[in-house]
């Protein structure tokens, strides 16, 4: 199109007609705009990748009912996330998923300003009329990983790269070592907190330091595959994928992986908003519901270990096995949970103590 | 064929001095649009969303102000130090120490604060930043240790100090074990100056700081000393200006302002100390200082331009799905063009006859 007066005029008329068209289109059924706020990038092949995959699952399942999901990456846990939340709400997103713990304060704050927008905060604990929380029982997967570690570790020493000592992370460490000690009563685990969810360099450095100290199995509660890559390079017994299958990065070292399958939850939440039935609350599904899945086992895992891991997995699915069943002692050896008693969800969600076998960080 | 040669100017060009930052921004937009189009994105859309939407959408102005304020305050301090050829790279650390000092006041007076809480926090922030900058000053003046290295390395130490404090002594008793302090009491929070927005008192403070700094730098003996020591150290020595004193002043002033920015951030947008407090304002402010031509008034504009790229980068993510790394690419391109353009301040392009023709 050449730029002349007639064409400009045409464009002007067309532009003037646009608002009319817009309001007419909106009056029909406008697809629901869903926003996702991530702390890292969608190609971290872990936590954020898991959420992005869930977003895609939602779009594929609901089709034209939802618009192409909006994903904002690399949003720090601070005032910057408040701006992104407002940006999403102002640009017409009626359902917004905030997928990192540290967004909590800001989700509550922005949600007050946008009462007609629904917010869901992953791994958080603060709720309001339009803010729900959701999480997955990762610790069930940790119990499976811990069982494998208990069988396979030669030194009986595991390392655990954590972000922050919040209950979600502490719970995972405890589930891991409880499961490992059922196999090897002398098993110990050393957590190291690196104060970030995603810093591949730091994760790799930590993994190297752990291996130098005689640790031969590494688990991590951070977002990417960096620790596994170090495990592969150094040829230790192995590690576990977190959030997604990371075998592409560590084909030998990945013993198995905990896969987060957020898709069904995102479908349900979006459908509820469309139907007008969305309600606040806390959702915490796990292996049984398929939100937490165990990935393929590595080649180095012997058949009997696979069988033991599968038994732990299936026991948690049919409800016959719960890793947080007493007797459980804390790291000093004092009894915290009497024999036969199962810890409640409320107790798990405020867990701030380590079980026996954890060498607490200074 | 035409050939050009760089020829040194007798004096730095005033026109180029002010034209190159503008040209850097414009070139960034043009080249950015071309590059992103070439790799298959909507390049023009990216430039529009990153550089224009934050300005045209009135909802975004509050964000620009809030994001620009700390950049301007830290940038003004750095521009003063850099004028004197004192290379404080550790503003991020001084910003953190200012924030921590203010947090200490807020936590120590929790539940018994009053109108005096914020002024005391402000003093603590300024003192914290200045004290942390005093370490490189001392090392430089006494032991002749390069301040670039010491100030930068101290930044990492200050980050670890946050982690330590929020994990143990300052941990929020109600925070579910999350390493963060409790939320500050209302007396320790910056007032909001425009109801219905997020604009806090730090925004006008940033403008006032820049204006005062401009006045001091251009009108006072202190400003003259900074400029003369930086531009002509030998002449300054003859003139009786002490080099050590200048180093001290430059580091203390830039550290104090970084500390002030830290206090305003923690008492404003953050409302508590968290491990995510360091957000690279101290490093970004280095670009701001240079983009602003080390002139406090220029820093105001540079701070706003950088804020636009941050806010616009998020807009581009939500509207056209551009990756967050794009913002970094645009910011880096801007600094690159600015530094490359700087050569035109001291040199000019002169057309010369090609050698072939000259021989013929």
Automatic annotation (TrEMBL), chain A:
UniProt keywords, alphabetically: Signal
GO CC entries: plasma membrane
UniProt-listed Gene3D superfamilies: 3.40.50.2300
Record Pfam families: Bmp
UniProt-listed PROSITE patterns: TAT (PS51318)
Superkingdom of this protein's organism: Bacteria
Alphabetized InterPro entries for the sequence: ABC-Purine-Binding, PnrA-like, TAT_signal
Span of the signal peptide: 1-27
Residues covered by the ABC transporter substrate-binding protein PnrA-like domain: 33-295
Database matches in PANTHER family: ABC TRANSPORTER SUBSTRATE-BINDING PROTEIN
Name of protein: BMP family ABC transporter substrate-binding protein
Species of the source: Devosia ureilytica
From TrEMBL, chain B:
Places the protein is found: Cell membrane
Hydrolase recorded as keyword: no
Name of this protein: ABC transporter permease
InterPro entries from the UniProt entry: ABC_transp_permease
Domain of life (superkingdom): Bacteria
Transmembrane segments: 21-44, 64-82, 94-112, 118-139, 148-166, 198-217, 247-267, 273-292, 299-320, 326-345
UniProt keywords, alphabetically: Cell membrane, Membrane, Transmembrane, Transmembrane helix
GO cellular component, one term: plasma membrane
A Pfam family it matches: BPD_transp_2
UniProt GO MF annotations: transmembrane transporter activity
């Amino acid at each position: 199109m050449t730029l002349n007066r007639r064409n400009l005029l045409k464009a002007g008329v067309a532009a003037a007609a646009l608002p009319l068209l817009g309001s007419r289109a909106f009056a029909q059924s406008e697809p629901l705009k869903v926003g996702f706020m991530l702390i890292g990038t969608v190609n971290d092949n872990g936590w954020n990748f898991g959420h992005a995959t869930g977003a895609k699952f939602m779009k594929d399942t609901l089709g034209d009912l939802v618009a192409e999901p909006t994903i904002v990456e690399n949003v720090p846990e601070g005032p910057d996330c408040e701006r992104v939340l407002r940006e999403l709400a102002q640009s017409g997103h009626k359902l917004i998923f905030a997928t990192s713990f540290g967004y909590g304060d800001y989700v509550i704050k922005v949600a007050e300003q946008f009462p007609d927008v629904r917010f869901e905060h992953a791994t958080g604990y603060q709720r309001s009329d339009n803010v729900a929380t959701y999480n997955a029982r990762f610790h069930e997967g940790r119990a499976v990983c811990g069982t494998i570690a208990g069988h396979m570790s030669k030194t009986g020493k595991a390392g655990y790269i954590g972000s922050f000592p919040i209950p979600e992370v502490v719970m995972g460490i405890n589930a891991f070592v409880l499961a490992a000690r059922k196999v090897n009563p002398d098993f110990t685990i050393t957590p190291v907190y690196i104060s970030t969810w995603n810093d591949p360099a730091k994760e790799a450095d930590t993994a190297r330091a752990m291996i130098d100290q005689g640790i031969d199995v590494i688990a991590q509660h951070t977002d990417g595959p960096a620790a596994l890559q170090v495990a592969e390079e150094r040829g230790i017994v192995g590690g576990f994928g977190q959030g997604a299958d990371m075998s592409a990065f560590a084909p030998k070292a990945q013993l198995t992986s905990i896969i987060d399958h957020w898709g069904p939850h995102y479908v349900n939440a979006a459908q509820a908003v469309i139907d007008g039935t969305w309600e606040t609350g806390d959702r915490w599904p796990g292996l049984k519901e398929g939100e937490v899945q165990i990935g393929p086992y590595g080649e180095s895992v012997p058949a009997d270990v696979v069988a033991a891991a599968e038994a732990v997995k299936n026991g948690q699915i049919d409800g016959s096995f719960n890793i947080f069943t007493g007797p459980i002692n804390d790291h000093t050896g004092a009894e915290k949970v009497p024999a036969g008693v199962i810890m409640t969800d409320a107790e798990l969600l405020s867990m701030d103590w380590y079980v026996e076998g954890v060498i607490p960080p200074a | 064929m035409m050939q050009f040669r760089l020829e040194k100017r007798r004096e730095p060009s005033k026109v180029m001095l002010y034209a190159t930052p503008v040209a850097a921004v414009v070139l960034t937009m043009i080249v950015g649009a071309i590059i992103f189009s070439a790799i298959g994105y909507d390049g023009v859309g990216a430039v529009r969303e990153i550089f224009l939407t934050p300005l045209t959408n009135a909802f975004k102005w509050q964000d620009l102000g809030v994001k620009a304020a700390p950049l301007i305050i830290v940038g003004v301090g750095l521009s003063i130090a850099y004028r004197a050829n004192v290379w404080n790279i550790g503003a991020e650390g001084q910003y953190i120490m200012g924030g921590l000092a203010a947090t200490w006041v807020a936590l120590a007076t929790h539940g018994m604060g009053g109108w005096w809480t914020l002024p005391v926090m402000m003093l603590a922030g300024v003192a914290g930043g200045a004290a942390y900058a005093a370490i490189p000053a001392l090392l430089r003046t006494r032991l002749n240790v390069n301040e670039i290295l010491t100030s930068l390395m101290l930044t990492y130490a200050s980050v670890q100090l946050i982690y330590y404090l929020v994990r143990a002594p300052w941990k929020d008793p109600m925070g579910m074990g999350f390493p963060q302090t409790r939320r500050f009491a209302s007396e320790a929070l910056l007032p909001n100056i425009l109801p219905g927005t997020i604009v806090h008192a730090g925004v006008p403070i940033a403008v006032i700081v820049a204006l005062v700094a401009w006045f001091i730098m251009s009108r006072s003996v202190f400003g003259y000393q900074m400029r003369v020591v930086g531009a002509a150290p030998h002449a300054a020595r003859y003139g009786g200006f002490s080099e050590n004193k200048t180093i001290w002043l430059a580091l203390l002033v830039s550290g104090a302002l970084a500390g002030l920015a830290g206090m305003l951030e923690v008492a404003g947008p953050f409302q508590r100390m968290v491990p995510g407090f360091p957000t690279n304002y101290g490093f970004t402010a280095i670009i701001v200082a240079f983009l602003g031509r080390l002139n406090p008034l220029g820093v105001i504009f540079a701070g706003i331009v950088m804020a636009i790229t941050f806010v616009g980068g998020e807009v581009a993510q939500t509207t056209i799905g551009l990756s967050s790394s794009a913002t970094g690419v645009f910011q880096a391109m801007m600094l690159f063009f600015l530094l490359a353009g700087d050569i035109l301040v001291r040199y000019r392009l002169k057309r010369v006859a090609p050698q072939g023709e000259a021989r013929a």
